[in-house]
Amino acid sequence: MSTTAPAGEDTGIAIEGLTKSFGTQRVVDGLSVTIPKGQITVLLGPSGCGKTTLLRCLNGLETFDSGRITIAGVSIERPAHSGRELERRVSEVRQRVGMVFQNFNLFPHLTTLENLSLAPQLVRGTPRERAQARGRELLEMVGLGDKADVYPSFLSGGPMQRVAIARALAMEPQVLLYDEPTSALDPERVDEVVEVLRRLDAEGITQIVVTHEIAFAYEAAEHVVVLERGRILEEGAPAAVLRNPQEERTRVFLRRFLSTFRPG
User: Fold this and answer.
1) What contacts 252, CB < 8 A, 6 or more positions away?
2) Which secondary-structure segment (H or E) carries 40?
3) Domains of the chain: residue spans and CATH
4) Which segments of the chain have a pLDDT < 70?
5) What pTM value is reported for the model?
């Protein structure tokens, strides 16, 4: 069986019947959804609804129990794929998919430029000069071209998150996954991250963002998916889902945020 999707098939990310349990607790429960290619999709839902677990399954950080994922042209099916075949496919996914974590995970003993250029050298065998040249380009792209020789401890949260995004981009991913990228930031720094996501959106990179922040979803997303107990509760354009949700449980979830957020 070919690892890649059939020629001409361009469905973004396809998730079919995905299940994942930890012990007796089913965290993702038969979930099926298509994530549009080249768009920003935000995953919303209460704590424990399966958002982060779903993200980790997409990047191969968790092995799901059953179902099928097609991401960046690579298909993984469980339990059909196991052992070395599973490892091979997960490795291919990781070469195409970047991950940006909530707490940045930058190496404190390396400058921002060294943080960006290390993985391409070690993983792809990119020559040092070329990796650093690309790193400088990416720092310019995220508005930090003057911070190449600065250590992370001298940066505030917003710039550190932008460095983390640039580091993920250094591996030339087709898909970027973000786990609560703005939750550790001051409100004035959130706009900096939104601006970077929009630039990447204009370049056609598929982006999936896990967040609890409704205002961020409304401002940044083109597609919103609301999860509850590991299942899709509601999905669609942010203006439709956040202004006029069709499900009562979506309205209950959103009601907690209405005192601080009013969709325009």
Assistant:
1) none
2) strand 40-44
3) 13-103+174-255 (3.40.50.300)
4) 1-11, 257-264
5) 0.89
